[in-house]
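Troubleshooting: if your tokenizer reports a length mismatch, compare your output against this known-good record of 425 residues.
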Amino acid sequence: MISVEEALEKLLSNVDVLAKEEVAILDSLGQVLADDIYSDVDVPPLDNSAMDGYAVQSSDTLGAGPHSPRLLHVIDTVAAGSISESEVTAGIAVRIMTGAPVPKGADTVIRFEDTDEVSRREISGGQTITEIGILCEAEVGLNIRRAGEDISRGSRILAAGTVIRPAEVGVLASLGRSQVTVISRPVVAILSTGDELVEVGQPLPAGKIYNSNSYSVAALVRRYGAVPRMLGIALDSEDSLVTALRRGLDADMLITSGGVSVGDYDVVKDVLAKEGEIGFWTVRMKPGKPLAFGTIRGSDRRGVPRRIPHLGLPGNPVSSMVTFEVFARPAVFKMMGKKDWTKPTVEAVLEDGIVNTGGRRVFTRAVVEKREGRYFARLTGPQGSGVLTSMSQANGLAIVPEDWAEARPGDIVKVMMLDWNEEVI
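Known-good structure output:
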């Protein structure tokens, strides 16, 4: 058996960053920018109003107040998307909407609330207002957003390696870009093995179980930004497994579940040896000891020969999900060009005991809560590797180190957070 760190290092050393691709900006969410982004426009392109109000010259507001309004002649109204041809001079005002370009000559915008517009409209009976009273003094630049205030033409706005979030999508849109060059999303081929498996949606014969692993793994692949490709179920024979695997040899990574233990029908190891190379076989962890990694001969999307990384997850559903989080997730992130592969980790007070009899690193499903400034972790109940509902109830994995024989209630342990939300923060 090798350590978790050794296994992860071997896996990542066989995984490379993928090639670039150009995608629609909305489709790029969660991907990594392949190139620096420079702007060829100013944002905003012109000085514009930050408020609904009146564009005036600040000198016309000197001495203005609620009881001493400064009266100005209103010559025009300008809405967002329009440009006023009028020039603001002494004694002149232009009614202006938020986002509209500031008219020539104006150097400040007085918001509606600081004018007597409401009372004048009541008096006018709906007629156009030709005069307005300014009720406050204003400095130059008040309520004006300057051209290039957000983005200046020629500047680097986003750096290569940036992970695209909704804010970055908005920035790209503000530059007028509909497409962006990013690191490709990995295609991950997923195959479950076992004579006992039945596809979901089909009748369940006696002695059979539904193929949940393919779906939980595919959901994890999609959650972390890659593209799952479901290969279905392979029977417990080399021929069936090889036939199924060959349907996924143009993927960027192969993930199987089951067939990696030491039973008579666990054939993944044999197939790895014949179709490629074995990197490691067992890992010093629980759950997830029977974890296989190697490479299989295949070809890329252009048909060029290459070795495809293959991760053989254990067949038990909890083991499959835990080992995906620990190993497959970092591999997927590296292929996507991401630099941070770690999950958030907290130190928590353990509320239940955990026994470690095998000298392995134990990942225990737990619920983490924050109370009075401290984190507390309680187990989700039975920790058998077949109890999948324990994963649905957990928001973290409490970790017991290899050299601990047990963790007692009250001990401080590290917890790898599976979910990180306002209920925990």
